[in-house]
Amino acid sequence: MDRDERICQEGGLNLSNLFPTYARWEVEPEKAEGSYLFDKSGKRYLDFTSGIGVCNLGHRPAAVQKSINEQLNKFWHVSNLFIQDQQETAAKALSEAAGMDLVFFANSGAEANEAAIKLARKASGREKIITFQQSFHGRTFATMAATGQDKIKNGYGSMLETFKYVPFNDLNALKDEMDSETAAVMLEIVQGEGGIHIGDQEFLAETEKLCKEYGALLIVDEIQTGIGRTGKAFAFQHFGLAPDIVTAAKGLGSGLPIGAVVGKKNIRRSVWTRKPWINIWRKPDQHFCCYCYNEDNIS
Ligand SMILES: Cc1ncc(COP(=O)(O)O)c(C=O)c1O
Question: Was domain 63-298 assigned CATH 3.40.640.10?
Answer without folding.
Answer: yes
